[in-house]
Specification:
7-stranded mixed beta sheet, lipid metabolism, methyltransferase, Rossmann fold, methyltransferase activity, SAM-dependent methyltransferase, 439 residues, 2 domains
Length: 439
């Protein structure tokens, strides 16, 4: 025990923030005027702290074995200092973990399990999410094309960027896989005049979107289905497809089949925009230092991340040609900090909402888990442990074109200018000077 305390004292002294630890017996280590204090009721959690297993410390906080005092931003700065290595870089000799992870992925991602996993997260409480998301409830990375914009405007900018990348045109048939609370569906229909179909596995989201469609007078032109992408049957393929924040739930073992299914849902010459979280490391099966296990247990059971190179490999194998890829990693760090700050500002109202929904024990655990998840994810995107890629792909139609479009094999522009040519409704101006500050 003395050796452990010695290690802890050394770790605390080296941190970039003032941090203190109170032991189960009451002894206190670390800074006197601490910005962050952890009060331990469990000795195993102390060992996790000393060894840099910050995900396991997070689990102990969720379970009530460690009490937290201080801001989430200060805690995350301390967490980064406690790590003993890069959690996105798995040692090469642990190749067998990747083999086991693929086998587990194949077994886990059944229709029934995927539906249960989605409902575990997204059906927690609509009112809870409404407290800290923007008014449209866009639960994915925003696009801060102007560094001074609010989260609300940055989410609108993201919705419009997706529509522009897809070159949506009036009357086109548009599919949104994993439609969430319907923000992209409604934006595409109202601003681009498409005939829009969304699918989700969340019962709460399905009911919410149905209500929004009726309220906005879009019945007949916009629809939402409670359906798995593998079970979607259509008489005519779609002109354009978007998948936003969904393919993280597919699983590495099913990724090739996922893109093959999407290809079959898309007409020849049609475009796919796949927007999703990717791994920061090339080979790691999940984040190390206990963080991957934390996410699996408390936030996204069944969630799996692939490096962008693996995603592009599976996409190409399925017969989809990547025509543009953009990494919005720093945008997601800023988005997550906005969500984290918003939740921190309404902790008691959030607790009351969860109490009414799931009862006291699960409410307190869920609130602690989400506080750590949002702030921890923001840290992860800041440090490059995770990334966010928008990948635009086409299903080639074999038409070699003519004139300046010879060789295109699809009606796709030769330059990216059209993606960033904004219209009056968008919050970004192409005439503004770039801001050198990081986002």
């Amino acid at each position: 025990m003395k050796n452990l305390l010695h290690i802890l004292e050394g770790r605390l002294e080296a941190l970039p923030v003032r941090m203190a630890v109170q032991l189960p017996a009451g002894q206190r280590l670390g800074a006197r005027n601490a910005a962050v204090t952890l009060r331990f009721r469990d000795r195993m959690a102390l060992l996790a702290l000393a060894s840099g297993e910050i995900g396991n410390v997070g689990a102990a906080i969720v379970e009530g074995k460690v009490a937290l005092e201080g801001s989430m931003r200060e805690l995350m700065a301390a967490a980064a200092g406690l790590l003993t290595g890069n959690p996105a870089q798995e040692p090469g000799h642990l190749w067998w973990r990747r083999v086991l992870a693929r086998a587990r992925s194949m077994a886990v991602h059944t229709l029934q399990n995927d539906a249960r996993h989605v409902q575990f997260h997204y059906d927690l409480s609509d009112d809870f999410y409404a407290l800290w998301l923007d008014p449209r409830r866009v639960y994915s990375c925003a696009y801060f094309c102007d560094p001074g914009m609010t989260l609300d405007r940055a989410q609108e900018a993201k919705l419009d960027l997706i529509c522009r990348k897809l070159r949506l045109q009036p009357g086109e048939r548009f599919l949104d896989i994993g439609a969430g609370w319907g923000a992209l569906l409604l934006w595409a229909a109202e601003h681009y005049g498409v005939d829009a179909t969304g699918i989700t596995l969340s019962r709460n989201q399905h009911a919410h979107v149905q209500q929004r469609i009726a309220e906005r007078g879009l019945t007949g032109r916009v629809r939402i289905k409670l359906r798995d992408y593998r079970e979607l049957q259509v008489q005519e393929p779609f002109d354009k497809v978007a998948s936003v924040g969904m393919f993280e739930h597919v699983g590495r073992a099913k990724m090739n089949a996922y893109f093959a299914t999407v290809r079959n849902l898309l007409r020849p010459g049609g475009l796919l925009l796949n927007h999703g979280i990717t791994a920061g490391g090339v080979d790691n099966a999940q984040l190390g230092a206990g963080m991957g296990d934390f996410i699996e247990q408390y936030i996204f059971p069944g969630g799996e991340l692939l490096h962008a190179s693996a995603v592009l490999h599976d996409m190409a194998q399925a017969g989809l040609e990547m025509v543009d890829t953009e990494n919005l990693r720093p945008h997601y760090a800023r988005t997550l900090w906005a969500w984290s700050d918003a939740l921190e500002a309404v902790l008691e109202p959030a607790r009351q909402v969860l109490l009414a929904q799931v009862g006291p024990e699960r409410a307190d655990k869920a609130l602690r888990a989400y506080r750590l998840y949002l702030a921890g994810s923001a840290l992860g995107f800041e440090r490059g442990w995770m990334a966010l890629h928008q990948i635009l792909a086409v299903r080639p139609d074999g038409n070699m074109g003519s004139g300046t479009m010879i060789g295109a094999q699809s009606v796709y522009p030769f330059t990216r200018d059209y993606m960033y040519t904004t219209k009056d409704r968008t919050p970004c101006s192409t005439n503004s000077s770039p801001d050198p500050r990081p986002i």
